[in-house]
Amino acid sequence: MITTALIHHSYPISRILLTSSKISIPYALLIFNQLLNPTTFLYNTMISSLTVHKDHIQTALSLYSQIFSHENLKPNSYTYPSLLKACGSHPWLNFGLALHTHVIKFLEPTCDNFLHASLLSFYSKMGKLGVSRHIFNQISRPDLATWNAILGAYAHNSSLSFDDDDLALEALSLFKEMQRSKIRPNELTLVALVGACAELGYLSQGVWAHVYVLKNNLRLNHYVGTSLIDMYSKCGCLSIAYQLFGQLSHKDTLCYNAMIRGFATHGFGRRKMHQHGHSTNLYTTMEWVL
């Protein structure tokens, strides 16, 4: 790339930065620091690569501040989502609040739905669900990413609130509104929906989500599978949860935790249930509930 002068073009450099950052962050930074006139696109590429690593969030914020040292550069809507995601936990929360003020200063009202989704997810992680909902209400035509963000915000906060079903009910209400808008749900949507059903004990709606996954050829990955296992366990259908657990090809720690919690809750602390034999058939029960 150096000998053919491709190194002077933004896109080839961005590919080098992306590849290098997966191998060695210091090497990627070395390349970036040698660029004479980095564009906002290249800053965004490097910032996004850095925010993947928790140890390099401060470096990413430093690079962000460098953008303002160039008279002809300013951040755009692609600059902020990765930074907001990185600042969604302690000790970076205050930096996330400062980034929101920059969004308003430099981008409003032109920022896109993806950035709005990043903002409402950030405030959800802070526990400020009211702010998340206010941001959502400002969007005239929410897309799938935005719907997923607000549904996930309500589902996540409802799981943290004991004896408060209002958030889970609001998540179900939002999902119905999403259906009326003709936006098709994906796996992330259904994880949030099933999570809300689990908190409320709404078995029929949870089974509907399971059937939707199967009928529409969506991936029954470990995220969807874990949420369904948790829902069936909380709704008293432990044998169905265990059958589903056995069908998942990939199980992570959260998936095992959900199944262990289900066993413990229903008094199976020492012995495990039979996956076959007298256990309830998964698909027969789904048909009965529907």
From TrEMBL:
Name of the protein in question: Pentatricopeptide repeat
Superkingdom to which the source organism belongs: Eukaryota
PANTHER family, A to Z: DYW DOMAIN-CONTAINING PROTEIN, PENTATRICOPEPTIDE REPEAT-CONTAINING PROTEIN
Keyword Repeat: yes
This protein's UniProt keywords: Repeat
Listed GO MF terms: RNA binding
Protein's GO biological process: RNA modification
A Pfam family this chain is assigned to: PPR_2
Keyword Repeat: yes
